[in-house]
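Supplementary Text 2. Reproducibility record for the structural model of the 143-residue chain.

All settings were left at their defaults, and a single model was retained for analysis rather than an ensemble. We include the record here because the model underlies the residue-level annotations in Supplementary Table 4.
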Amino acid sequence: MPVSKAHAIWNGDIPSGSGHFTAGDSINGGVTYKSRFEGGPGSNPEQLIGAAHATCFSMALANELANAGFPAESIETDAAVTLRPIDGAPTITKIELVTTGRVPGIGADRFREFAESAKANCPVSRALAAVPEVTLQATLAGV
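Retained model, structure tokens:
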């Protein structure tokens, strides 16, 4: 399997400095103290973690459904990553996944079972196992 790579640079001190990152061929953005800690314009690492988690989870869920004979028309997932100070250090304390699937021939309860399995087993979920709270809301579209 290929090794995924990213690059980041930070210039200056934290309150007034700025940074830039790239990942793969098409992901890039700028980051500042305000964009990370004050909700200002720009990007932050937690958004990248959320994007990675939502993408990985969606792919894992689609794979589990297909392997069980329920190929998905679509899986759409949002991730909200909460950063809070713990003992004076910024810490990711919660990730909320909200997913909606269009999956013909499956019931809502069975869909939620597959979603819980994907949440537990996707590689990004496993990498983020230290996050104290990861929640999942799974909805089957059209039900």
